[in-house]
Amino acid sequence: MTSKNIVPEAREGLNRFKMEAANEVGVTLKQGYNGDLTSRQAGSIGGQMVNNICPVRHMNFTRKNRTVKGYERQITYGFRVVV
Q: Is-contact 45 28, C-beta < 8 A?
Protein backbone atom coordinates (compact mmCIF):
# COMPACT_ATOMS: atom_id res chain seq x y z
CA MET A 1 0.00 0.00 0.00
CA THR A 2 1.37 3.38 -0.93
CA SER A 3 0.81 6.64 0.87
CA LYS A 4 -0.65 8.72 -1.94
CA ASN A 5 -2.89 11.68 -1.31
CA ILE A 6 -5.85 12.07 -3.58
CA VAL A 7 -5.24 15.82 -3.51
CA PRO A 8 -1.46 16.43 -3.71
CA GLU A 9 -1.89 19.98 -2.42
CA ALA A 10 -3.19 18.58 0.88
CA ARG A 11 0.22 17.18 1.86
CA GLU A 12 1.32 20.36 3.67
CA GLY A 13 -1.93 20.52 5.63
CA LEU A 14 -1.62 16.88 6.64
CA ASN A 15 1.98 17.44 7.76
CA ARG A 16 0.88 20.40 9.91
CA PHE A 17 -1.94 18.29 11.35
CA LYS A 18 0.54 15.50 12.17
CA MET A 19 2.90 17.96 13.88
CA GLU A 20 0.06 19.38 15.98
CA ALA A 21 -1.04 15.87 17.00
CA ALA A 22 2.56 14.99 17.93
CA ASN A 23 2.84 18.11 20.10
CA GLU A 24 -0.45 17.24 21.86
CA VAL A 25 0.86 13.80 22.89
CA GLY A 26 4.37 15.07 23.70
CA VAL A 27 6.31 13.44 20.86
CA THR A 28 8.99 15.46 19.07
CA LEU A 29 8.88 15.10 15.30
CA LYS A 30 11.45 16.42 12.92
CA GLN A 31 10.93 17.32 9.27
CA GLY A 32 11.39 14.35 6.98
CA TYR A 33 12.06 10.81 8.11
CA ASN A 34 11.28 9.89 11.73
CA GLY A 35 12.49 6.30 11.79
CA ASP A 36 13.84 6.64 15.33
CA LEU A 37 10.32 6.77 16.83
CA THR A 38 9.09 3.79 18.79
CA SER A 39 5.90 2.02 17.73
CA ARG A 40 4.17 3.44 20.80
CA GLN A 41 5.11 7.01 19.89
CA ALA A 42 4.07 6.64 16.25
CA GLY A 43 0.81 4.96 17.29
CA SER A 44 0.01 7.68 19.79
CA ILE A 45 0.39 10.31 17.05
CA GLY A 46 -1.90 8.38 14.70
CA GLY A 47 -4.39 7.76 17.49
CA GLN A 48 -4.47 11.46 18.36
CA MET A 49 -5.10 12.33 14.72
CA VAL A 50 -8.03 9.89 14.58
CA ASN A 51 -9.44 11.26 17.84
CA ASN A 52 -9.32 14.79 16.41
CA ILE A 53 -10.98 13.76 13.15
CA CYS A 54 -13.80 11.67 14.64
CA PRO A 55 -14.12 12.31 18.38
CA VAL A 56 -15.72 9.69 20.61
CA ARG A 57 -18.46 10.80 22.97
CA HIS A 58 -19.29 8.87 26.11
CA MET A 59 -22.85 8.60 27.28
CA ASN A 60 -24.10 7.02 30.51
CA PHE A 61 -27.61 6.46 31.73
CA THR A 62 -29.03 4.69 34.74
CA ARG A 63 -32.26 2.77 35.20
CA LYS A 64 -33.82 0.73 37.96
CA ASN A 65 -33.87 -3.02 37.51
CA ARG A 66 -36.33 -5.15 39.45
CA THR A 67 -34.95 -8.67 39.70
CA VAL A 68 -36.95 -9.72 42.77
CA LYS A 69 -40.21 -8.23 43.97
CA GLY A 70 -39.38 -5.32 46.24
CA TYR A 71 -35.71 -5.31 45.31
CA GLU A 72 -34.40 -2.60 43.02
CA ARG A 73 -30.86 -1.88 41.96
CA GLN A 74 -29.34 0.79 39.78
CA ILE A 75 -27.82 -0.32 36.49
CA THR A 76 -25.54 2.05 34.57
CA TYR A 77 -24.93 1.57 30.87
CA GLY A 78 -21.99 3.20 29.14
CA PHE A 79 -21.88 3.83 25.41
CA ARG A 80 -19.24 5.10 23.05
CA VAL A 81 -20.84 7.25 20.39
CA VAL A 82 -18.72 8.09 17.39
CA VAL A 83 -19.72 11.40 15.84
A: no
Q: Per-residue b/e over 15-25, b at no fewer than 16 CB within 10 Å?
A: eeebbebbeee
Please list the residues that pair with 7 across neighbouring strands.
Answer: none
Separation CA 63–CA 75 (nearest Å): 6
Cα distance between residue 22 and residue 27, in whole Å = 5
Q: Which of 74, 28, 83 is nearest to 52 (CA)?
A: 83
Evaluate if pTM is beyond 0.70.
no
Q: From the centroid of its chain, how far is CA 30?
A: 22
Mean pLDDT by 10 residues, the chain (83 residues): 70 90 93 91 92 73 64 66 60
